Known about the structure:
Elements lengths: L12 E6 L17 H12 L3 E6 L9 H8 L8 E6 L5 H14 L5 E5 H5 L1 H8 L3 E2 L21 E4 L2 E2 L10 H4 L4 E2 L11 E4 L10 H13 L5 E4 L5 H6 L2 H9 L5 E3 L7 H13 L8 E6 L5 H14 L2 E6 L30 H20 L4 E2 H4 L5 H8 L3 H4 L6 E2 L18
Parallel strand pairs: 1-2, 1-3, 3-4, 4-5, 6-9, 9-10, 11-12, 12-13
Antiparallel strand pairs: 7-8, 14-15
Helix pairs in contact: 7-9, 11-12
The chain binds iron/sulfur cluster.
Amino acid sequence: xxxxxxxxxxxxxxxxxxxxxxIPNKSRNHSNFLPIGLLKIAGYLRTKDxxxxxxxxxxxxxxxxxxxxxxxxxxxxxxxxxxxVTSIFTYWxxxxxxxxxxxxxxxxxxxxxxxxxxASLLPEHCKEYTHCDGVxxxxxxxxxxxxxxxxxxxxxxxxxxxxxxxxxxxxxxGVYTIEPExxxxxxxxxxxxxxxxxxxxxxxxxxxxxxxxxxxxxxxKKNRKISYIESQSGFDGxxxxxxxxxxxxxxxxxxxxxxxxWDHELTDASFIKKxxxxxxxxxFKPSEISVFMIYDYELDYNEMEEKxxxxxxxxxxxxxxxxxxxDATFDNYNPRKRKQTNKDYWINPNWTDAEVRLFRRNVRxxxxxxxxxVDFHSAKLERKQIPQxxxxxxxxxxxxxxxxxxxxxxxxKEAHLVExxxxxxxxx
Length: 428
Ligand code: SF4
């Protein structure tokens, strides 16, 4: 069913709910997590004179919601005629269920519908598991052309799409299910209402009108109408090689922190280096570039670690993404625990829990070293467990100079390989 099928003349108030996903509070308004779908729906409903209320990230089982508090204060009386709940990753399905059950108890006669990524990838599971009344899959077309209701959140940026869908079908990605149609815009300049822009395109460079869009952005930047741009997804390296002039255009338009992906084998290193060189020639510093790497997937720990060391040689950061199957309905990976198994989270057959943790840790230390322009990491130095004077001295030294002076020294220059079977027995 479509959103419009749930709306009629008697729909006067709609409650929009972002479940209590396990996102750190400081990241709630980060562009990666903004419930942009709900903001678009809010904008759309307002065009129909429907009152909307957005509830975000409150613990629905044990705490009161904003509505409860407002009821107690006697400020409003908001009995919704429809409740729309958003969803993100399939493995956060339990948070969606909690939200649906909570609002079902609270508003017994109000239909509750769920949309978003989990709802689109696993609609039957979503309907049965969450006990919602309806599932909306894919893009909510009617809300696509409306300006999102940014007044419902406190952000200084806006989110834009120049395309929907993707021209590729990577095995670990659900875009072709969620957005099966490849749609492209020729122009976006009339949509711009803020100075900071975040592009949510899955594959911005694949837009056949990308040059036109970048020219618009360059013009807006010259006229100081925009000041910051970032693309949430990586730039398609294969397209970058075909159209290297795009690198100069994104630099001129003011894009920050460009990312490319290195999904495949170590043998692709020279191809990846070529892509990085195009970005560097366009004026980006290596340290501001990140390489997306999916791990706990097809390549084993040792190959991933060799890829990581290559990235250090090139001076770039890594954006690591732990793989979860597209139909995973839970993920209880806990970075603070020492040992977990496949019962807790997805561990690929060619990985162990210890390797997953080690790789994550290596990437973290790698990125710190890139950001600080050093070639070693020491947890004691990071935690300020070394007297200040000594720490200052160590920090001015290279790995080769300091390696015998600190007992927890680690360098990103080397690939820290493991001997399979011995050091890291499979824990599941
Ligand atoms: S290029 Fe990116 S968005 Fe497109 S299918 Fe691959 S991972 Fe998904």
